Every structure is written in C-alpha cells, then in structure tokens.
Amino acid sequence: MILSRDDLCAHVARRQAAGEKGVLSNGCFDLLHVGHLRTLQAARAMGDFLIVGVNSDGGVRRLKGPDRPIVPEDERCELLDALSCVDYVCLFDEPTALELAAAVKPRIYVKSVEYLDKPLPERAVVEAAGGEVRLVPIHDGRSTTNLVDRVLATYGS
C-alpha cells in the first residue's frame, strides 16, 4: 500500500498498538535488483509488517547526481508495493529517513552492513522510541551502480 506519511503513521500506530512489530527500511531503489529483494525479504522476516521509505526523485538526484534517478519515484514505489514482502511504501524528500523513522517509530530499523562504519542518523530516534537497529548482509556486486556500469560497458553510453 503506497501511503502519505500521515496515513502511514496512522496504520503503523494502530498495528503496533495491537502488538505487531513494524520494521522500517529505506533507500533509492532506482533499478530494483536481487540485492534489494534479499534485503527487503530479510527485513520483513524480522517483524510482522514491512514499511519501505523511498527517496523522492529530488532526493535521489541530491544523493546520486543529476543523471539519477533512472526510474521515476511513482514507478519505484509501484514496483516496491508489488513485492509480497512489502506492506507499506512511503515517499520521503528529506536527505535521510530520520524524519520518517521519527514519525512511524518502527520497532526495528534495517539497513545493510555497509552502514556499520557510517553514521546512521535514524539510530538515535529509533532507539529513543524503544526500537532497535539491525544491519543485514550486503549482496556483493548487486547494486544499481554496478548494473548501470555493466549496461554502459556492454551497450555504450
């Protein structure tokens, strides 16, 4: 279900008040690939429902550069919403998912282990609300950047 932040917060609050454990993960998901899928499946297995925050087109440009995103935000949200492991999708425009995490108060926040030695601004708000942060393995060679590089090397720019 693709929801606005306000509608998402209402759904999550209701479910967590009923004792369910909400899990939040986020990213650009510019070209959906098996690394994304495996990470989202692992995240979903940690709780009762999975919320996926998706960087807006403007947010992706700020993070990845002017040639990104390749796939527009509405289509990225639609693709994620079609995955059986994803319960809710919410677009956000801020530089990080800090505000989204503060609003939905997930019981678990999931990112890949590539954030082991990087700042994770969402950690403080998740833990302050009684949640925990978990890092899942990355899937070597499975990234949008690698896909783009491979296509360009094979088919030219």
Summarize the structure.
With about 160 residues, the chain is of the alpha/beta class.
What are the key terms here?
157 residues, alpha/beta, five-stranded parallel sheet, 7 helices, 5 strands, 18% strand
Could you explain the architecture of this structure?
This protein has 157 residues and is α/β, with parallel strands linked by helices. The chain has a single domain, classed as Rossmann fold. Helices cover 43% and strands 18% of the residues. It has 7 helices and 5 strands. The chain has helices spanning 5-17, 34-44, 57-64, 73-81, 98-104, 122-128, 144-155; strands spanning 22-27, 49-55, 88-92, 108-112, 132-136. A 5-stranded parallel sheet has the order 3-2-1-4-5. Helix 5 runs parallel beside helix 6. The protein is globular. It starts with a helix and ends with a helix. The model has no long low-confidence stretch (mean pLDDT 92).
- Number of DSSP E strands: 5
State the CATH superfamily name: HUPs
In whole angstroms, how far apart are the ends?
A: 36 Å
CATH topology: Rossmann fold
The top level CATH class name = Alpha Beta
Number of helices: 7
Strand content: 15-25%
> Cα-atom Rg, whole angstroms?
15 Å
Main sheet: which strands, in order across? 3-2-1-4-5
- pLDDT under 50 segments (min length 5)? none
Total tally of structural domains: 1
Mean pLDDT over the full residue set: 92
Based on helices, strands and strand pairing, what is the structural class?
alpha/beta
What is the share of helical residues? 40-55%
**CATH arch. level architecture:** 3-Layer(aba) Sandwich
